Amino acid sequence: MSNLVKLEGINYLDPVQFDSMQRVCGMLINSDLVPDTYKAKENTPEAKAKAIANSMIALEISQRIGASPLMVMQNMSPIYGRPSWSAKFLIATVNTCGRFNPLQYKFTTNGVLGKIEYTDYEWKAEGGRNQKVAVKKVFDGTQIENIECVAYTTAKGSDDILESSPVSLAMAIKEGWYLKNGSKWQTMPKQMLIYRTASFWTSAYAPEISMGMATVEEVEDTIDIPHEDVSETVKKESNNMANQENLENKNTPTATLITNPTKETPKKEEKKVEPTKESANSTTAQTSNTQKPNDGRLF
Amino acid sequence: MKLSVLGSSSSGNSYVLHNENEALIIECGIKPIEIKKTIGFDYAKINGIIVSHSDQDHIKYIDEYLNLGLNVYTSAGTIEETKTKSNFSPIVCKHGSEFRIGEFTVLPFDTQHDCKEPLGFLINHPECGNVLFATDTYYLKYKFNELRHILIECNYSEEILQRNGVSNEFLKNRTINSHMSYDTCCKTLIANDLSLVQNIVLIHLSDRNSDAKLFREGISSLTGKNIYIADAGLEIELNKTPF
């Protein structure tokens, strides 16, 4: 492990450390191996500053948990603006931290799911405005087995089994994880059960490993960004407003150049022969009022 | 007059109307060098560039165009949101006030998109007559007279959007609230007098939520006109008369 990783954390108030970290981050953001979040999206000072700031945070976390900066960068993703660990990184960290034996998973099947009542939230027009309304729905799970999973392991040197809370498919449906658009619970339920129970286990027995961060899968399942379904509003607006007016030329000078003392007007070639009018704050450039093709009528 | 499509998608938009002596560029979403190849390596032909709105796929290379000393015309709202870094300023144009760029006359009109002061353009040139250009708008307020050629957005089909099951509701809402659907495109076309129209070019098709073949066939049977899909590399003649 390098000296860098041995540090307990970056002291942002130490100018020497801060400068060193900035240079390290400057190098990392140019690597092809780091994810796009940590790379400058454009070749501008602002984009580079943002990439360095993201890298600095990743570097600081990597030092605190004793992991390689690249590993942290590749496994920490911002989901809806929240940094989240990938579940496999969390499992790997528990398995290699030295305090616990590797996580194990116990699956049991509790018959078929049957019909499960759950609460969904739908946007409905009520009182002239769209509101999110709780709607009771029934999920038909008569063809689906209700699998339950528990993550468990033992602390090294102890025989006490440390078990996570059980997570089942019935719970996933009731919590709304299973029925979200694009949910992986429908396509790979066992994998999601492993990820979720591992996450629950870590939150219960070693929260310092995840440092309070949820896993990517948890955030995607539980964070419901408020939104309004605009389909009907747009349709209504389009029906009422579309193609109602005839486009008219207001016959006023246009194409004005806002004068800016710090910027120049592009010098155009001799092709521009139209006269320009000048005023205190703006310059009229190339209006068609002096030379209309159809006597001022719209084309 | 020739229309060359250099890009018509979220990865970059650029269209060039050009003849032997003049060129009008619509949108700055493609590098100037590509334009140069299209117009035969003669920058002096370029009369100007008009830009509809401030999304990256439309203004990405605006600084490069400005640095070449070319006149870029767009709305004050677009300039405000673009924050150009060039030493040259774009030129402000506004809804309803026409202006000339060489032999081209351009009448900007307001469109409906989720950014500040987006514009569409009614372009006239003696060689090709009136050309309507409307992109990134979920409907058009206006009807247009004596159109000869139409470049109109046909971004998505509601059926395909529903079928694809957009996992991100924001993305779905943004599509509906800022882009023109196939149905709206059809309604817009038939709301206008198409008797003089020769070519309709469907632009800015969504990669995921559109079906170019179905759109072309549907609008062709609706209007009876030549329908083109604006794929990069498309070149068509836009003349006032079809002969």
Summary?
Chain A has 299 residues and is an alpha+beta fold.
Report on this structure.
- The complex is a heterodimer of chains A (299) and B (243).
- With 299 residues, chain A is an alpha+beta fold.
- Helices cover 34% and strands 24% of the residues of chain A.
- In chain A, the strands form 3 sheets. In chain A, strands 3, 4, 5 and 6 form a 4-stranded antiparallel sheet that branches. In chain A, strands 8-10-9 form a 3-stranded antiparallel sheet, with no helix packed on it.
- In chain A, strand 3 and strand 4 form a beta hairpin.
- Residues 1-7 and 268-299 of chain A have low confidence and may be disordered.
- Chain B has 243 residues and is an alpha/beta fold.
- Chain B has one domain: Metallo-beta-lactamase, Chain A (4-Layer Sandwich), CATH 3.60.15.10.
- Chain B has a 7-stranded mixed sheet with strand order 6-5-4-3-2-1-15.
- In chain B, helix 7 packs parallel to helix 8 (212-223).
- Chain B is globular and about 45 Å long.
- The chains are: A alpha+beta (299), B alpha/beta (243).
- At the A-B interface, helix 10, strand 7 and strand 8 of A face strand 6, strand 7, strand 8, strand 11 and helix 6 of B.
- Strand 7 (245-246) of chain A pairs parallel with strand 11 of chain B.
Explain the layout of strands and helices.
The complex is a heterodimer of chains A (299) and B (243).
Chain A: H1 3-6, H2 15-28, H3 45-65, H4 69-75, E1 76-79, E2 82-85, H5 87-96, E3 104-126, E4 129-154, E5 161-163, E6 167-168, H6 169-175, H7 189-205, H8 207-210, H9 216-222, H10 231-241, E7 245-246, E8 256-258, E9 277-278, E10 282-284
Antiparallel strand pairs in A: 1-2, 3-4, 4-5, 4-6, 8-10, 9-10
Chain B: E1 2-9, E2 12-18, E3 23-26, H1 32-38, E4 46-50, H2 56-59, H3 62-67, E5 72-74, H4 76-82, E6 91-92, E7 99-101, E8 104-110, E9 119-125, E10 129-134, E11 142-143, E12 147-153, H5 158-164, H6 169-178, H7 182-191, E13 199-203, H8 212-223, E14 226-229, E15 235-237
Parallel strand pairs in B: 3-4, 4-5, 5-6, 10-12, 12-13, 13-14
Antiparallel strand pairs in B: 1-2, 1-15, 2-3, 7-8, 8-9, 9-10
Helix pairs in contact in B: 7-8
